Amino acid sequence: MQSDTVIKAYVLSLAQGVVRVHWFEGIDGDSGPFGFIAGNNGAAPKRLSYTSITQLIKALGQTPKYVGWVLLDGKHYGFVFEGPVMATWAGPGVTAKVALGAKVRVIQPRTGEGTESEGVDLTPSPLLIADVPPKLVAEARANRTRPFPWDGDFTGAASVSWEAPGSAKGLHPVGHLRVLAVDGRDARDLSATSGVSFTVDPNFLSYATVPIRITAVLRRNGDKPAGFNLKYESTSGWKGAGGWYTVPAGTQWTTKTWAIKDPQFVGKWGVHFGFDSDSTQNSGYSLLSVTVEKGE
Predict the structure, then answer these.
(1) Distance (Å, rounded) from C-alpha 232 to C-alpha 92?
(2) For residue range 133-163, what is the model confidence (pLDDT) as tens digits?
(3) What is the 3-state secondary structure (H, E, C) of 141-194?
(4) Domains and CATH numbers, the chain
């Protein structure tokens, strides 16, 4: 939902030191219904996202000052700003009751409604918490320079990996793929999509350029030919690696490795690399795992 996304986008950007964020766009233009205001005249209705960004500005002020992050109950995201004010939400598909240990003011960004409570009901939709207890502020301040806890700290890791059906250790596929049981093992079936993209934990690799190896374990789903181009973010933009790869025929699992010398995983388009089959005519294969390793 746009009203949730705008809060998360601005909060995460501010927490990472981004100086300017431009939302596309403030008022609907010729690109579609993406604005805070649904139209380009004075009578146009304001969307929920308009109320959400208004409440965020009201809570954080014109020049927000980031304090640090916390994990509520050890797993729910919280980002604290001077005020003190905290933006918090739960992970996808998660709901939880969290005690904060003191009375706070809970603000619903979509409506601006505020209530007083000593706890919050968290969902994936963000809440704004005013009068954050000193203990949480101190915890956030201590965490300020530490990596965000996105399922682990991969700052010094030699590799990151993903394994079907959903084990992500610093490497995350984008989107939802169908799980297929193959010889008693769960794999991700790509036959209904033209490709799959991945994001790498930014503490593992981002602007730095070092040689890497990307390794996939995969197999063809049937007799029909299948294949893809590995495309990745490089120092010279989005490019291919090694040309078209045809998944070998047969029922065996195959391991394929690509050596890449010039990665630069900054996420310009929200992803870092992907397997592009062009269409579902070529995507009849399944993935068991993908690994990204540093080194020649």
Answers:
(1) 27
(2) 999 999 999 999 998 877 788 998 999 999 9
(3) HHHCCCCCCCCCCCCCCCEEEEECCCEEEEEEECCCCEEEEECCEEEEECCCCC
(4) 2-143 (2.60.40.1180), 159-294 (2.60.120.260)
Strand partners, 119: 99
Q: How does DSSP classify residue 123?
A: -
| Structure letter (DSSP) for residue 62 | S
Question: Exposed e or buried b for every residue in 104-128, given b needs 16+ CB within 10 A?
Answer: bebbbbbeeeeeeeeebebeebbbb
Cβ neighbours of 282 (radius 10 Å): 22
> CA-to-CA distance for 235 and 263, rounded, in angstroms?
6
CA 263 – CA 185 distance, rounded (Å): 32
- Record the tokens describing residue 285, joined without a space: 């294969």
Whether pTM > 0.85 for this model: the answer is no
- Containing H/E element for 109? none
Contacts of 186 (CB under 8 A, 6+ apart): 164, 165, 179, 180
**247/218 Cα distance (integer angstroms):** 8
Rounded to whole angstroms, the Cα distance separating 217 from 194 reads: 18
Rounded Cα–Cα distance for residues 214 and 208 (Å): 17
What are the residues whose beta carbons fall under 8 Å from the beta carbon of 238, sequence distance 6 or more? 231, 232, 268, 269
pLDDT digit string, tens, across residues 225-235: 999 999 999 99
Which candidate, 120, 123, 130, places its Cα nearest to that of 58? 130
